[in-house]
């Protein structure tokens, strides 16, 4: 039976706030009263049952190690840094693909890219998994809470060198990036003196970078004295400067320039690469009026006509393509036993397409615009990946749908078969162009009646799957 095809707007919203529409996701949205109500339900992730994906944490025991244990195990040679990094990347990809909390996963990635730390950074890596948990816990709350937790986290202070910054030997790296990347941006007009005072406010948050990698606060290392940054002013007289620092970070989170930057970033992610000033201003206003509430900003974005009109305007990044393809073909992961099992190879698929999670080398995070991800090399890699998944590779540590399960009851014309498969893989009927391309690919006329599975066989079904996945409809979201 052909699965029900959602309306264009239902498919549009589900595609933007998940890692790929599937018939199961369409049914889930219907159960909750439609796509918009589904989104509201997803905004409270703890109300969404997620036992299967939640159980994947146990597949990678090293993710539960403390930073001190990871560091000591690395120093003793008991484990290598990249082993923990790969576990973290694998778990992330599996969560994005299989979690029922799709909005939560999407927003966790969004904020991880804004408050970016590479997974394999040599200074931050023992704290990197806990940093991820911090972002996940606040991904649908208030940005000011998220910003404070992220900027003072030992992963961030290690990565951007604040962990060694003291009042006598200031390091301005984190103080600068807090302004430039995480909040107000260059257009706000901050000065070098503002950067200096920003670094002064952040001094005192330390990490033992030599022995234990344990984080601590050192009042004796905190700069005291007057600071001024973009309208923020503090006498900053207490040796324990945490309260003053929190006030400073919350001020930046509420700054009008931050509101515009966050709003534009949300619109680029969920609307189009070049959002209008009208939608950016609307989202920024909702963000500010709500006290930096992330859900309020998302609601305004979704209800704006520009979101409605942006169907098909966003190209999937390679990482999104990987997860969307896993979801489309219905692969199901099992707890890995061998190195070649599916759960242990997902990171290689992502790397082969050019975008493994948290592999971007700079603190600005990976781009989210089509121009960065539409090279001929990327497209060829995606097409090859689609064919391999359509052919049920890898075979170990996963279950795949049988080829026959993709077909409608036979006999059926080829174009009817293609339409049936398109409704399952893309949640939309097959266009004339797709039917023609599929017919050409397997060298069978569109009107030919396929009487039995043997008339196609596994290899032709694989080609039909990859042809459907190679379309712009799958490569965009």
Distance between the termini: 25 Å
Using the alpha-carbon principal axes, give the shape.
globular
* Rg over alpha carbons: 24 Å
Please give the largest β-sheet.
Answer: 2 strands, antiparallel
In short:
It is built from 24 helices and 8 strands. With 477 residues, it is mainly alpha-helical.
Can you tell me about this structure?
The protein has 477 residues and is mainly α. Among the domains are: 111 residues, no CATH class; 53 residues; 67 residues, no CATH class. Helix content is 53%, strand content 4%. It contains 24 helices and 8 strands. Strands 1-2 form a two-stranded antiparallel sheet. Strand 1 and strand 2 form a beta hairpin. Helix 14 crosses helix 15, helix 15 runs antiparallel to helix 16 and helix 21 crosses helix 23. The protein is globular and about 85 Å long. The mean pLDDT is 96.
């Amino acid at each position: 039976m052909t699965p029900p095809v959602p309306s264009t707007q239902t498919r549009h919203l589900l595609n933007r706030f998940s890692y790929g529409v599937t018939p199961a996701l369409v049914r889930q949205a219907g159960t909750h009263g439609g796509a918009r109500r589904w989104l509201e339900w997803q905004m409270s992730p703890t109300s969404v049952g997620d036992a299967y994906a939640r159980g994947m944490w146990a597949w990678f025991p090293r993710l539960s190690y403390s930073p001190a244990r990871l560091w000591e195990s690395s120093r003793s040679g008991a484990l290598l840094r990249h082993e923990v990094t790969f576990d973290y990347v694998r778990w992330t990809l599996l969560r994005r693909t299989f979690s029922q909390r799709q909005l939560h996963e999407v927003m966790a990635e969004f904020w991880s890219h804004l408050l970016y730390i590479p997974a394999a950074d040599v200074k931050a890596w023992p704290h990197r998994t806990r940093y991820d948990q911090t972002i996940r816990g606040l991904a649908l709350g208030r940005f000011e809470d998220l910003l404070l937790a992220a900027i003072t986290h030992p992963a961030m202070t290690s990565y951007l060198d604040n962990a060694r910054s003291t009042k006598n030997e200031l390091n301005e790296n984190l103080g600068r990036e807090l302004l430039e990347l995480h909040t107000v941006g260059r257009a706000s007009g901050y000065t070098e003196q503002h950067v200096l005072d920003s670094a002064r406010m952040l001094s005192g948050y330390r990490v033992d970078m030599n022995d234990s990698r344990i984080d601590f606060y050192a009042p004796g290392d905190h700069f005291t004295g007057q600071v001024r940054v973009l309208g923020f002013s503090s006498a900053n007289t207490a040796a324990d400067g945490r309260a003053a620092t929190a006030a400073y970070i919350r001020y930046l989170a509420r700054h009008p320039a931050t509101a515009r930057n966050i709003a534009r970033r949300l619109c680029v992610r969920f609307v189009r690469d070049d959002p209008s000033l009208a939608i950016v201003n609307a989202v920024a206003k909702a963000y500010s009026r709500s006290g930096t509430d992330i859900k309020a900003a998302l609601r305004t974005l979704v209800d704006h006509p520009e979101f409605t009109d942006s169907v098909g305007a966003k190209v999937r990044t390679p990482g999104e393509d990987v997860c969307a393809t896993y979801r489309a073909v219905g692969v199901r992961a099992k707890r890995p036993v061998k190195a070649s099992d599916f759960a242990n190879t997902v990171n290689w698929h992502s790397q082969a397409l050019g975008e493994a999670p948290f592999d971007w080398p700079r603190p600005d995070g990976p781009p989210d615009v089509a121009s960065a991800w539409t090279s001929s090399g990327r497209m060829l890699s995606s097409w090859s990946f689609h064919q391999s998944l359509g052919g049920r590779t890898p075979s170990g540590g996963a279950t795949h749908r049988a080829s026959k399960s993709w077909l409608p009851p036979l006999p059926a014309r080829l174009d009817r078969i293609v339409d049936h498969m398109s409704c399952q893989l893309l949640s939309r009927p097959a266009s004339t162009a797709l039917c023609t391309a599929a017919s050409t690919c397997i060298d069978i006329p569109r009107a030919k009646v396929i009487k039995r599975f043997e008339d196609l066989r596994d290899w032709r079904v694989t080609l039909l799957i990859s042809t459907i996945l190679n379309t712009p409809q799958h490569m965009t979201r």
